[in-house]
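WARN no homologs supplied; continuing
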Amino acid sequence: MGREPMGTPDTISVSVIDDHPVVIEGVLAWLSQEPRVLIHHTGDELDIDRALADVLIMDLNLNGRLAVDDIPAIADAGQRIVVFSQFTEQDLVLSAQDAGASAFVAKNEGRAHLLHAVVAAATDRPYVTPTTAGSLVGNNGIDAPRLSEQERTALLWWFQSMSKTSVARRMGISPHTVDMYIRRARIKYADVGRPCPTKADMLMRAVEDGLIRPGDVTELHFRARS
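OK structure emitted
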């Protein structure tokens, strides 16, 4: 089921998926220091029905396989994801976020970063760890977020004065998923230091970056700014 963006939640339910019990125990010890956090599920296998919580903390290396390709389906189910991994290669960090993860926390970044990332994800806010920042700095396209094809398509049709319901019908997905793609794109822009809180701001950013050509949009609902 979909969730609306949250303000400051009284409680945050969290699932933890890792194939090392000692890591799960350590994460639970860290989370216990945040009174708002309630543990929903732990385990070493990704099970959307069992793991669905406000936030899912997941390792990328699960029982000998890389789980990046699992992220899109989990995110599309409405799950907010914080990746918690010992693998911090630039391509992997960016791929995890492109796939739909709300945040990426390296296992050596410690309790504070993990807790901040969990709370930020639960409230649909961006949180950039040093690992993520380093990956973005090393990325030639640092100033332009890496939008997925689904995110770009949802934005394009939304910009063409279509309602989210109409966009959903055209894409063959739910209105909640359309809203999620738009929120995800907004978070990605905030992550690179270019927030766009309104539809007009987001459209202008997308045109500036060449992600969308002015001619692609039939009606522009923003005023040019000097």
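The first strand starts at residue 12 and ends at 17.
OK
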